[in-house]
Specification:
157 residues, alpha+beta, three-stranded antiparallel β-sheet, elongated
Length: 157
């Protein structure tokens, strides 16, 4: 009702979910024959050929692993692409890095942080070729799609 890209129906007694994302489609149902029939009907209406790619492994930057007992989503390949796009190297993280320290000293440092004020500091930041808005936007996409655990760190950014 609230998501305009996801449709729900019952076909031949089976619950079917249909996802439409611009020019990508995904069908979720227990019976593979039903999903193939739906894709075939859609393909018949299109002017370009529609390819059935089988079980979803990746959609819109989200990695999908499916088994009989679970479906796991992650954005590991998306985040790898983000790191590569900014020429960053992966670093070893500490266990349980989030939430950040909540002691008064750490909070005080965050709250009193100031933007670079001198022309030299501003030039160094500019020369670092760091697009802050783009990085935050990419992190928010990862947070919204499958990493709600990083919301606290993004909020502090």
């Amino acid at each position: 009702m609230h998501e305009r890209c996801i449709y729900k129906a019952t076909i031949d007694g089976e619950a079917v979910l249909f996802l439409r994302q611009v020019d990508d489609f995904a069908v979720a149902c227990k019976n593979p024959a039903i999903s193939k029939a739906i894709i075939a009907k859609i393909g018949a209406k299109l002017s370009v050929p529609l390819h059935q790619l089988g079980v979803i492994e990746k959609i819109n930057g989200i990695d999908v692993v499916q088994s009989k007992s679970f479906i796991k989503i992650s954005c590991l390949s998306y985040l790898d692409k983000v790191l590569d796009g900014h020429n960053w190297q992966e670093t070893e993280s500490t266990p349980n890095p989030i939430p950040m320290q909540s002691d008064r000293t750490s909070q005080g440092m965050l709250e009193s942080a100031e933007l670079p004020s001198s022309p030299l500091e501003q030039k160094r930041l500019h020369d670092a070729n760091f697009n802050y808005r783009q990085v935050i936007g990419e992190a928010i996409y990862a947070m919204v799609t499958c990493r709600p655990d990083i919301a606290y760190a993004i909020k502090l950014s």
